[in-house]
Amino acid sequence: MNQETPKAVDGASGVAPRIIPREAHSISRGNISEGALKVLYRLKKAGYEAFLVGGSVRDLLLGREPKDFDVATDAEPEEVKTLFRNSRLIGRRFRLVHVRFGQEIVEVATFRAHHSQGDEGECVDGRIVRDNVYGTLDEDALRRDFTVNALYYNIRDFSVVDHTTGMEDLERGLLRFIGDAETRLREDPVRMLRVVRFAAKLGFRVDDEIERLMPRLGELLVDIPPARLFDEVLKLFHYGYALETFELLRHHDLYRRLFPASESMLAEEQEGFPRLLIAHALENTDQRVQEGKAVNPAFLFAAFLWEPMREAMKRLSHDLDEQEAMQEAADEVLAAQVGRVALPRRFSVMVREIWTLQLRLTRTTGKRPTLLLGHPRFRAAYDFLLIRARAGEPVAELAEWWTAFQESDPSAQAAMIDSAPKKKRRRRRRPRRPREAPAT
Ligand code: ATP
Ligand code: MG
Among all residues, which ones are annotated catalytic? Predict the structure, then answer.
């Protein structure tokens, strides 16, 4: 693993960038969105510099389809705004321009400098933010996180401009920071999650230095506001590489920083069940992303926290009936979780629904099954039942029944209700413990 790699530049450069001419790289304008091309050409025509930058350049060079296109320019935001009627200024601290073409939004940012000397920066939301001043292309390159994210495609001559070792690292499949890894991670600990996200998505090797630092610096994530972590968690799990991402988060000892209760169940891991349930939920999410279907964070949170919730439920069911115990267990587990990674209320409501529907799904008599089919969360709850069965919970027969029930016409459904599997009571219902007599 300890390959010699040339050092990535780490100061205000002054070093001439490597220019890769059009014929020596694989980016073709045919793969750039129409919107992005319009923005680039119009900026150029108005006399400004204009480059594609970041993920889009990286992905195009790798032969992947970019998720979106970001443009960097020496035009200031107000100047950009006047060039595009279909645009608006966003952001307070750094002002950006969003140019809209139908569904597509092209983000245009003015070159920024970040590393002004002697400026220690101020801590905002757990990351260090320095005064942002507009800068030059090379300054803009050096403030970016990874070398492979700091490549620029120049619309003037279609060359790629590399101020670090981006091209080389891209060819080797190596993820590393521009400059000193520890400094960059301390500046913004969320970059640890970005390491994982890109390593999973690109299948890149993580630089040895980062590998060493991550478990040690993981605790810095505790200072990141839960709302920001929620945004990052969505990016981690909703872009089609959820299962690899999960494995890598655990490998780098970061999963417990996000989902501590879930990690402690996984660490106990007696029969492999919690891991399997989570793995199936992640696969299910990846598959939906691939098929272009909507994904909902509630489903994943329900899976991550299912075991912790059941543990709490077991403890509480000494005094409460099944439903009450689940409600209280859900309160407990969700309250602890949102202190770490926020979960907007509409999603935590869904997590509860997915869980409580697991109880209702066991009742397959009378009108209940038909009514349940119309429940807005039926589909998610049924999918959840399927992954529980696949993970080895004793609900396979029930899951098959629901599959058949949905596929049947009404008369066949009526017949099925009689042949429904009897709900097996897992525990004898105990008489409630008599309350202790109040002290007199
Ligand atoms: P994706 O394809 O997943 O969107 P991306 O590389 O475009 O990947 P973004 O989060 O959209 O990632 O960020 C765009 C660019 O902005 C990055 O490529 C990087 O150059 C820069 N960037 C984003 N976040 C940070 C950060 N926390 N620190 C430094 N640079 C960053
Ligand atoms: Mg992007």
Answer: 68, 70, 145
